[in-house]
Amino acid sequence: MKNRIIFSLLGFALAFSVSAQDLSDKQRAEIEQRIKPVGEVCLEGDNNCSGPAVAAAGGASAGRSGENVYNTACMACHSTGAAGAPKLGDVAGWADRIVKGNDVLYASALDGIAGTGMMAKGGCMNCSDDETKAAVDYMVAGSQ
User: Fold this and answer.
1) Which residues 6+ apart lie within 8 Å of 87 measured at CB?
2) What CATH topology corresponds to 63-141?
3) pTM of the entire predicted model
């Protein structure tokens, strides 16, 4: 009885493997279509991608303006003053920061400020360094 079950299972496995190999090209294409990935992650600088690299949420590689970065990443805190963030247009709130110079402001924006709500790049991890600096320039220009 035991041998009969084993042979039956082997026969089933053999029949299944033969039928899977006997698919038509059309059937294989349909299966490939059903199981293909829904997307591909391709990071900027990755040369192994099948298409051009783009960053999520707006294509950082296109070079967003400081105003665009502010409106998409910085506004949540810098328009409300959340977590002590200086508000855009608040001359007094920005004065002590602006006097330290752009390099200090850029470093704060790029690296974040420990012990505060200011995260590196304001949490915009798909922003390039230049885009982050442009957002700082935009806020400084609007707060002098």
Assistant:
1) 78, 79, 80, 81, 93, 143
2) Cytochrome Bc1 Complex; Chain D, domain 2 (1.10.760)
3) 0.58
